């Protein structure tokens, strides 16, 4: 199940890279919106892969939530800010995925034959190289 989850997160990161955010005019101010068509389909696919709703992911990218007093206020992002949020989300997902993969590899049990063979081979190679260097030093002296 863990491998499947990793593939889902990786696919979501790739889909987020296909999301195009553009500016729309709203009362004279620039607000960000996800482009229709392929971009919206990529956002929908990323949301499905992450297990969140399409509207929640779209809102997370195109709006910001501010706490004023005891209430929360949503304000639209600019196009540049929304693109930064999209990229930041993709980077954070990829970073956490990478960290979990490294932790899983480090926690995995070592195979008996692979650990000793790899180090022994390196030790022998180092010994031969050292002997060659030492032999050259003695011959010169």
Topology:
Layout lengths: L1 H15 L4 E6 L2 E6 L3 H13 L3 H9 E6 L2 E6 L2 H29 L4 H29 L1
Helix pairs in contact: 1-2, 1-4, 2-3
Q: How helix-rich are the residues, as a percent range? A: 55-70%
Q: What is the H/E string?
A: HEEHHEEHH
Strand content: 15-25%
**Average of the residue pLDDT scores:** 82
Strand order of the largest sheet: 1-2
> What structural category characterises the helix and strand content?
alpha+beta
Number of strands: 4
In the predicted model, the low-confidence regions spanning at least 5 consecutive residues are 116-141
In one word, what is the shape?
A: elongated
Q: Biggest sheet, open or closed, and with what strands and sense?
A: 2 strands, antiparallel
How many H/I helical runs?
A: 5
Cα separation of the termini: 64 Å
Rg, Å, rounded: 26 Å
List key phrases describing it:
single chain; 141 residues; alpha+beta; two-stranded antiparallel ribbon; two-stranded antiparallel sheet; 5 helices; disordered C terminus
Summarize this, please?
With 141 residues, this protein is an alpha+beta fold. The protein has helices spanning 2-16, 38-50, 54-62, 79-107, 112-140, and strands at 21-26, 29-34, 63-68, 71-76.
């Amino acid at each position: 199940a863990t491998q499947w989850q990793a593939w889902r997160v990786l696919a979501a990161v790739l889909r987020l890279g296909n999301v195009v955010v553009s500016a729309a005019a709203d009362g004279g101010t620039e607000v960000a919106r996800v482009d229709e068509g392929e971009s919206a389909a990529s956002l929908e696919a990323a949301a499905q892969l992450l297990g969140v709703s399409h509207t929640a992911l779209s809102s997370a990218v195109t709006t910001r939530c501010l706490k004023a007093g005891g209430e929360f206020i949503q304000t639209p992002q600019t196009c540049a800010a929304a693109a930064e949020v999209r990229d930041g989300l993709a980077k954070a997902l990829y970073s956490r995925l990478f960290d979990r993969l490294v932790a899983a590899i480090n926690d995995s049990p070592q195979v008996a034959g692979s650990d000793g063979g790899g180090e022994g081979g390196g030790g022998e190679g180092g010994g031969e190289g050292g002997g060659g260097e030492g032999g050259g030093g003695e011959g010169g002296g």
